[in-house]
Give the backbone structure.
Amino acid sequence: MYVQLPFDELKVDPSRKKRVAYFYDRDVGNYFYGTGHCMKPHRIRMTHSLIMNYELYKKMEIYRAKPATNEELTQFHTDEYIDFIDRVTPDNLSMFEREQIIFNVGDDCPVFDGLAEFCKISCGGSMEGAARMNNGSCDVAINYAGGLHHAKKSEASGFCYTNDIVLGIIELLRVHPRVLYIDTDVHHGDGVEEAFYTNDRVMTCSFHKFGEFFPGTGNLNDIGIGKGKYHAVNVPLRDGIDDASYKSIFEPIISKIIEWYQPSAIVLQCGGDSLSGDRLGPFNLSMRGHANCVSYVKSFGIPMMVVGGGGYTIRNVARTWAFETGLLNDVILPKELPYNGYFEYYAPLYELDVRSSNMNNANSPEYLDKILTSVITNLDHTKHAPSVQMHDVPYDMEDWGDVYEDEQDSRDTKGGSMYARDKIIQPDNEFYDDEDKDYGERNIDVTNGNSNSNGNSNGGGVVLTDTEMKEIELLNKVAV
Ligand code: V1D
Ligand code: CA
């Protein structure tokens, strides 16, 4: 069953260009987990700087999402947990001794300045990306501030406090009968799997290092329970997996799942800690090997949301996410890095590529064959019986158990109800970043977005505020 083929060069087909909505908040890079902590939101700003200086703003629409509200966060998380996240600060931490333990904040998940705002920015991007996919205003949504896959309903875990992915998927489920979640972070996507473990409207598939590695879950035999049986797929891998081995397991598993499950939307978590040389991850993927996952998932032409995740050698995360943003826009970025605000990080070669090393690959063809056979056999033995047909638009959330406790709350989400969303089409001259808007309703523009905040067309399908235009000009000036 398992066949390893050589790793081919990545290709794009510009004639199949999709509408891409990219979410970025200029504040995100300022949040700081603390000295000695390996999670650095600054890498999102570095990624953005590369993206802008490679001129990808000419290819896609750029938005600053409204930060999620507490009410929106409680569509998945408990009120008590969100109330804690909203109130706790490094200065008042001693007042929350009991909560620190029950909500698991501490070494991995420290309380830092602006924690709640950081969570709201991360979740706002994924929720708004989903709302835009739902109303058809984009085919691809990108939020590198998202992908925080370990966060639980009432617990922080593995550098993640709120789960933007679960919230984004909940939004997608308003319109999409079946959503596929794929997780290429080197860690198991446990928070997302757990949220939908008993559910057949979401299929989760995580590729991860397994065996004495955080979080310790994600065994091959963990396949979902009840209605969710066969709707969780786990691909436990060993150290040193390289591009050819990864491709040879990723592609047949994903094609089988898509054929079997027929999702109408896909969420792809692109954790950069599966890259070679990561500070925490022991895999050996080059930038191109990592990006092959993006390219392969995109090739199915199904609306998709791309989110970030882990990634601790930050220059390599920025390189890879920029390259992947190029692929999503049907552009292969040239190797030579453009001058950008963080150019010195890319010394000594100042090149885009992240290369594999000569480390040992502990994933033998026999081991990978065993995984592939198990995954394919599970799906082959069962005929998928979708609980929601393609033509149904699901609003009855009775069966949501863990995910939805209150049906009324579930309707009051990011995009509002379908009805509410249709009623809040923005005028051409109003774009994001409007402080006066009611955050309880997503403010989704369904025009083609070819104007900046002054209503001026820039001819390239770009939506930039004046400030962002100035930012780009400034970056380019520095380059001269
Ligand atoms: F190295 C560190 C320095 C400071 C603080 C934490 C760490 C660290 C490294 N690895 N923490 C870890 C992992 N935690 C443990 C704990 C020991 N305990 C009993 C648990 O091994 C957590 C790794 C989190 C990985 C997060 C992620 O990459 O998957 C991610 N995805 O999206 C956002 C983050
Ligand atoms: Ca993973």
